[in-house]
Amino acid sequence: MSETSETTTHTSAGTGAAAQHPAAADSHEMIRVHGARENNLRDVTIEIPKRRLTVFTGVSGSGKSSLVFHTIAAESQRLINETYSSFVQGFMPTTARPEVDVLDGLTTAIIVDQQPMGADPRSTVGTATDANAMLRILFSRLGQPHIGSPNAFAFNVPTVRASGAITVERGTKKTVKQTFSRTGGMCTRCEGRGTVTDIDLTQLFDDSKAISQGAFTIPGWKSDSWWTVRTYAESGFLDPDKPIREFTDKEMHDFLHREPVKVKVEGVNLTYEGLLPKIRKSFLSKDREAMQPHIREFVDRAVTFTDCPECEGTRLSEAARSSRIGGTNIADACAMQISDLAAWVRDRDEPSVAPLLATLRRTLDSFVEIGLGYLSLDRPSGTLSGGEAQRVKMIRHLGSSLTDVTYVFDEPTIGLHPHDIQRMNNLLLRLRDKGNTVLVVEHKPETIAIADHVVDLGPGAGTAGGTVCFEGTVEGLRAGDTLTGRHLDDRATLKETVRTPTGKLPIRGATTHNLRDVDVDIPLGVLVVVTGVAGSGKSSLLHGSLVTTDQAAEAGVVAIDQGAIRGSRRSNPATYTGLLDPIRKAFAKANGVKPGLFSSNSEGACPHCNGTGVVYTDLAMMAGVATTCEECEGKRFHASVLEHRLGGRDISEVLAMPVTEAAAFFATGDARTPAATRVLDRLADVGLGYLGLGQPLTTLSGGERQRLKLATRMGEKGGVYLLDEPTTGLHLADVQQLLGLLDRLVDSGKSVIVTEHHQAVMAHADWIIDLGPGAGHDGGRVVFEGTPADLVADRSTLTGRHLADYVGG
């Protein structure tokens, strides 16, 4: 036999062997998790198929996020970070390895979560998705007149000019004169923010009084305060005994606008500056949500934000707005609805920038495809809802050529109308069909139905959860005896009778954002649901038009939105809800000591760990280590504080209680505290009875945080509750409990207005207002108002058709 034939025979034999014995690489078809114990997970062991769509479900707080985000995705990202050099890792966030015995078969994880995109005033939809960057290049190449590089169209880049002498040390020292200039697109008046602040002076002082007579009406500015009032009175620039309205022009300028300057007041060096810059620094530099209520009320009363008169709110300099392509400048392009901008880009035909146009077209078409065509690129990213922000993050992944990647989604259907959920499902399936592993945390039955594999965690929440109740197919889940399986086919029914309104809140001529001169009456004393596709104008109608009316103020509207709860690992449900105050006072009264002792953030804190319960050791570019404090054994309080008891329990034992146990503890006996019981009852009402009072807020899921905010705001005095998608993060079984809570609110004499897409809430409403018919400039009109039964019978709107299908009408 020749050498050639031997080689051929050998190769054929090898191929046959390979067919009988698959390559070792083909055996890694599963992501294997063994012994996961992160947060409330209890030694979870599970195998997840790769290149399939796996949906994780279970009640809120059952451990879904702990398994998917804090174990699988977190370890994948940690391993990728370790491939960089120690120098680079020093600049990256460091995370410890999750509490798990074995994690095998991981691939690169791309996380698309609901975290807010940040409310920086210069962050917009365009800057967050790179669409603005491509537009700037396009205008710098094609815009007429030509004004400069892409920086000349960037509202984040100021124009800079400099000149001077520099010393060059090369051989002999030589002084060289240099000039430098950079043309930016930032508006100089508003510094790229698009808005300017206008302060109402009448809210700052009473000009009929002198400073010495207490002219200031600013919260906290007492007539004898060192750092404020006395600085003005004894600065030497003003006459403290003269009424402010009688100040000379120079005195008024020094009073309102003077630059910071050192002055001596009774021998103490202090800084004097004009009232307006001082107000801007002390009040307007802080986040509004972080302010105390009385400070926030003052700022809302004294400060108005108006479009910048120089750039007309576009953020751009006059030069940037002067350059045009076919009569359109970059400000016009960014203000267009994205679906219209996509059509404008398609009309451009310029071979010199063909690759740029093609990429920009794909990006804009992705917006439309994902259901965000109604946005504009100049929309501030901080105004996006959680669902919109998540879909904006998806944009950069839709056209990606990467395969064999693990995509991790956190409830991607949040904020989506039933009409849009099918579109989202198609996108998830497309990512899977490209050869990727798709992991989705989800409650909606429409998305659970498309899963290749389902993992149901539970059976309960918190300490009652953390185990895998079921894994398999959707059919198996439906037939199984788990909470999710039993409720998967739940369908709410229409009410036989609806409540009669006791009044109305009129809205007239609403034109906020895309609203088209809307006139509508919102009935009071009943459960009202405002619905419509995403972008149809629901939030504009309620938060932009209703909340700002005088009638809303008179009715006492309490608006509860989806804004993120702010809080560190020191914050917990007891501190966030205000529950800790009556508890501390009860402990203090029972033991004859100060309330401050019973705060782990104040006098009672363990000195070794400063009240955190753990000691953190920073290991530079390696993950820091957290060990339980040896002094307090993780209880966070000084040993002497724990000697004080109330009803036989110390403060650390009380904070370790779940809500339901604490409610019983404070309801009777020596520990009876009605103020604490009221807060605890509200927490139980929203389904958080399992939550520990001292559990850090950083460990709560999105759904738990939403309901914690709801329970807190329910304590405010008001006659009308305005809720923004309260079913966010709620399991199918919890929706009925939420409906019961809404009913109790209405039956107690409150009015409840809900922005919602969930059909069960729509069916349960007394009155429905449907906006549409589409999104953006295709919406903004009231297309139906009436009872749910009338909407189902009418079937003339998208909502009506989907609700009819849901209730079987």
Features of this protein?
Helicase, Ruva Protein, domain 3, ABC transporter ATPase like fold, alpha/beta, single chain, six-stranded mixed beta sheet, Rossmann fold, 30 helices, disordered N terminus, 809 residues, 5 domains
Q: What would you note in describing this structure?
A:
This protein is α/β, with parallel strands linked by helices. It folds into five domains: 30-116 and 384-487, Rossmann fold, CATH 3.40.50; 125-188 and 312-370, Up-down Bundle (ABC transporter ATPase like fold); 195-307, Helicase, Ruva Protein, domain 3 (Orthogonal Bundle), CATH 1.10.8; 490-565 and 700-808, Rossmann fold, CATH 3.40.50.300; 569-699, Up-down Bundle (ABC transporter ATPase like fold). 34% of the residues lie in helices and 19% in strands. It contains 30 helices and 27 strands. The strands form nine sheets. The protein has a six-stranded mixed β-sheet, with helices on both faces. A six-stranded mixed β-sheet has the order 21-24-25-20-26-27, with helices on both faces. Strands 2-1-4 form a three-stranded antiparallel β-sheet, with helices on one face. β18 (503-510) and β19 form a beta hairpin. The longest helix is centred in the N-terminal third of the chain and has 18 residues, at 3-20. The chain is globular. It starts with a helix and ends with a helix. Mean pLDDT is 87; it is low at 1-19.
